[in-house]
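# step 3/5: fold
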Amino acid sequence: MATARTKKKVKAPRIFLKLSADHPQVFKALDDLGLAVRGAGPLDARTSHLVQLAAAAAARSEGAVHSHVRRALAAGVTREEIEHALLLLISTIGTPQVVAALSWARDVTGRR
């Protein structure tokens, strides 16, 4: 699925595709909001995706971690950079939550 958020194709989960087909206006508004927020400041796409990944990990949201890892990869962020960004959170959100987030990230990157 190509989105306005990334330049490369990103394979979204089936449920996301179904919900976006069922509620196209809502998901277009969400996509437009993401574009507006990213365009409102000086951070590049790679950095923006890493910030959102960190927030997803802190929120303990497996689905959001999966989504932001996919988006980060599509924006050119490496697996190593993703894992480093998550490791940086240990002293803030705790080791167990970082280990969980790394596991969720590896679901997407294929690294075991």
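# step 4/5: annotate
Residues 1-8 have pLDDT under 50 and may be disordered.
# step 5/5: archive (pending)
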